[in-house]
Amino acid sequence: MALAGVLFFRSAENIFARCNRCAHRTPAFYRSFQLFTTVRGLMVEAPQNSTHFGFESVSEEEKTEKVYKVFANIAKKYDVMNDAMSLGIHRLWKDALLHKMNPTPGTLLLDVAGGTGDISFRFLEYVRFQLKQRTKQDVRSQQTPSWNAIAESYAAGHQNSNTVSQAIVCDINKAMLRVGKQRAAEQGYITGLSWVVGNAEELPFGDNMFDVYTIAFGIRNVTRIDMVLQEAHRVLKLGGHFLCLEFSQVTNPLLARLYDAYSFQMIPVLGEVIAGDWKSYQYLVESIRRFPDQVCIYQSEGLPRE
């Protein structure tokens, strides 16, 4: 299950041209977006006003309820199962996401479908490391400084004093957030972290608030991808970044067969053994199989491919 990343930065005016809303707002020429994908997907049409829950065709309301129950059931074993299913590789994918994000001190992150906090924890560690490096550089540069240099440094420090980074984990599932809060307390993440119950399709935040929006292994579980993208566009500042980490198609036929065999024959078994829940992990496998590939998403949502 090797990482197959696709990265793009594009004008938000083109990316969201099909959203048909916010016509009064200034076009966001400087928003930039990044898309990461990992492994497997398939585009399947559903009847109007219905959608897919795994291989089932259900109403949009049913999917929202069913997905909520899945993650409520598996919340306590979610992180253990991620390690078991991916043999720990999901950690490398998330680390790669952070390196591409490259957040600086003062960045405000919205971690949507952030669940148990993996992305936000990495974000805080990344920014703390950068702050330590910046402090070391400042110490080196201030060896016997002149009074003019001290005055300039003091003024610059006040002008750029907003170095406090903040991560807001937003998830619709209260059980996942409870586990995330517990993990944060155990690992010492006390400051710079907030937890908010919210739906990715209707975020409880104002316009132009965030520097970075992430959604990792969550977008395939939403009911309306178009609404999620609209909300991401709305809450991002001009120049903000959208990063999505998700499974998609395996293009190599041999690897695709091996991946399907592993997914459908092993992952539900692991779910039963570790989490006592075969059905939830059967759904997760099916949801990956149903998820559109990159080209289908580009075409359906009006995203540029070049």
TrEMBL record:
Q: What Enzyme Commission number(s) does the record list for this chain?
A: 2.1.1.201
Annotated GO molecular function terms are:
2-methoxy-6-polyprenyl-1,4-benzoquinol methyltransferase activity
Which EC main class describes this enzyme? Answer: transferase
Q: What does the entry list under GO cellular component?
A: extrinsic component of mitochondrial inner membrane
Which keywords describe this protein according to UniProt? Membrane, Methyltransferase, Mitochondrion, Mitochondrion inner membrane, S-adenosyl-L-methionine, Transferase, Ubiquinone biosynthesis
- Residues that, per the record, bind S-adenosyl-L-methionine: T116, D171, N199, A200
Please name the pathway.
Answer: Cofactor biosynthesis; ubiquinone biosynthesis
Tell me yes or no: is Mitochondrion among this UniProt entry's keywords: yes
Any GO BP annotation: methylation
The record, for PROSITE patterns, names: SAM_MT_UBIE, UBIE_1
Q: Which Gene3D superfamilies match?
A: Vaccinia Virus protein VP39
Q: Which SUPFAM superfamilies match?
A: S-adenosyl-L-methionine-dependent methyltransferases
Q: How does it sit in the membrane?
A: Peripheral membrane protein
Name the reaction it catalyses.
a 2-methoxy-6-(all-trans-polyprenyl)benzene-1,4-diol + S-adenosyl-L-methionine = a 5-methoxy-2-methyl-3-(all-trans-polyprenyl)benzene-1,4-diol + S-adenosyl-L-homocysteine + H(+)
Q: Which subcellular locations apply to this protein?
A: Mitochondrion inner membrane
Q: Which Pfam families match?
A: Ubie_methyltran
Q: What does this protein do?
A: Methyltransferase required for the conversion of 2-polyprenyl-6-methoxy-1,4-benzoquinol (DDMQH2) to 2-polyprenyl-3-methyl-6-methoxy-1,4-benzoquinol (DMQH2). Methyltransferase required for the conversion of 2-decaprenyl-6-methoxy-1,4-benzoquinol (DDMQH2) to 2-decaprenyl-3-methyl-6-methoxy-1,4-benzoquinol (DMQH2).
Q: How does it assemble?
A: Component of a multi-subunit COQ enzyme complex, composed of at least COQ3, COQ4, COQ5, COQ6, COQ7 and COQ9. Interacts with PYURF; the interaction is direct, stabilizes COQ5 protein and associates PYURF with COQ enzyme complex.
**Family that this chain belongs to:** Belongs to the class I-like SAM-binding methyltransferase superfamily. MenG/UbiE family.
Q: Which PANTHER family match?
A: 2-METHOXY-6-POLYPRENYL-1,4-BENZOQUINOL METHYLASE, MITOCHONDRIAL, METHYLTRANSFERASE
Q: What is this protein called?
A: 2-methoxy-6-polyprenyl-1,4-benzoquinol methylase, mitochondrial
Organism annotation: Erpetoichthys calabaricus
